[in-house]
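ok, trying the design again with the full structure, not the truncated one.
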């Protein structure tokens, strides 16, 4: 079965990203696509909701299953198809935009075609919203189409990791599972040995895995999580002084808290509270 919407290509596109087409195929075992290099001048993400299918890349055939995706850059050769016995439920979007290629290359998305989406529900929700808008209103609301396409792209940029990391490393998957717990406990003293033990690896290997999955060190992640907590408390706990919030967020030293906050936010906690606490 199919749901799909093909949209007009804007000759003078003013948007950072805009959909060329968007759709959902399921119970479609004959789904097969082969495009020669240069045939399609837009980005293409095909994401597997369930079932499985195959992608030819780098001279090999790779199996894609639920939560996995293929990303094509403009003008790339494309060859993908559904499994006949367990056909994939696949959501796809073709999109283009001003400066989009440089943006994707800067973030390293040209280095792999195969990806795992860590937050499947977020990507599927963003895709459904775009598909409904395209089906319902077609080109009546181009700004909404652009915004919804950007929402899909933002989830992908935040949540996608190379499939090779996820499939070749069960410990890497364990690190992904630990992230919500690490975030919840970020205000507590950081103990590398404890988290390495939770992942079932040595502290040195834990740091290496964490960097490969998250592109930051474990301590960088803890710092970001602490500052996120502190920012929320600065606005919600208006009667609590900066020193107490710093201590509660895991920074007994107010001066060090101020330094880290300034590095990440470009302003002191006091100025942040004044600007955003109204």
């Amino acid at each position: 079965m199919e749901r799909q919407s093909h949209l007009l290509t804007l000759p003078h596109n003013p948007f950072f990203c805009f959909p060329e087409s968007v759709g959902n195929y399921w119970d479609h075992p004959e789904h097969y696509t082969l495009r020669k290099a240069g045939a399609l001048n837009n980005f293409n993400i095909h994401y597997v909701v369930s079932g499985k299918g195959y992608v030819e890349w780098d001279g090999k055939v790779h199996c894609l299953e639920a939560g996995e995706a293929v990303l094509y850059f403009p003008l790339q050769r494309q060859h993908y198809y559904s499994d006949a016995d367990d056909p994939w439920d696949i959501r796809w979007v073709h999109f283009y935009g001003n400066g989009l290629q440089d943006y994707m290359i800067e973030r390293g998305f040209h280095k792999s075609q195969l990806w795992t989406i860590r937050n499947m529900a977020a990507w599927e929700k963003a895709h459904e919203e775009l598909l409904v808008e395209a089906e319902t209103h077609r080109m009546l609301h181009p700004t909404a189409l652009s915004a919804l396409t950007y929402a899909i792209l933002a989830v992908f940029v935040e949540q996608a990791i190379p499939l090779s990391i996820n499939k070749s490393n069960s410990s890497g998957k364990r690190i992904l599972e630990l992230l919500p717990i690490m975030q919840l406990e970020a205000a507590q003293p950081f103990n590398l040995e404890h988290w390495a033990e939770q992942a079932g690896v040595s502290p040195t290997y834990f740091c290496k895995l964490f960097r490969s999955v998250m592109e930051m060190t474990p301590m960088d992640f803890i710092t970001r999580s602490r500052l996120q907590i502190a920012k929320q408390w600065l606005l919600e706990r208006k009667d609590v002084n900066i020193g107490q919030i710093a201590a509660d967020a895991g920074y007994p030293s107010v001066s060090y808290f101020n330094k880290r906050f300034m590095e990440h936010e470009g302003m002191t906690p006091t100025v942040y509270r004044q600007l955003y606490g109204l």
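Keeping the full-length input from now on. The mean pLDDT is 91.
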